[in-house]
Write a structure and sequence with these properties.
The structure is a single chain. The chain is of the alpha+beta class. The chain has one domain: SpoA-like (Surface presentation of antigens (SPOA)). 20% of the residues lie in helices and 30% in strands. A hairpin with a 2-residue loop joins strand 2 and strand 3. It is elongated.
Length: 91
């Protein structure tokens, strides 16, 4: 392996360690500001997605995949998402 390959491999390794924000979107809603101001504990916001619709996985705000939500098993159950589809990048 020559020096250029070693540098490229080291650079790629460093880049792969950069943290990125991952979000899972289960739905959205558009509300007038008056409705937002009136929110309180117990308020319900109706989302645009049906319960069975795929969640959208965003990486740094860009959609990269779709998935299904589930709850993990064990002593400390957590919400999780199982990837069902990779979204092709948009130009």
């Amino acid at each position: 392996m020559d020096t250029v390959d070693t540098v490229n491999e080291a650079s790629l390794s460093a880049i792969m360690q950069i943290p990125v924000a991952v979000q899972v979107v289960v739905g959205t809603a558009t509300l007038p500001l008056s409705d937002i101001a009136a929110l309180h504990a117990g308020s319900v916001i109706h989302l645009d997605q049906t319960f069975s619709a795929a969640a959208i996985i965003l990486v740094n705000g860009k959609p990269v995949a779709k998935g299904e939500l589930f709850v993990t098993e064990g002593a400390d159950p957590r919400m999780a998402v199982s990837i069902t589809e990779i979204i092709s990048p948009q130009p």
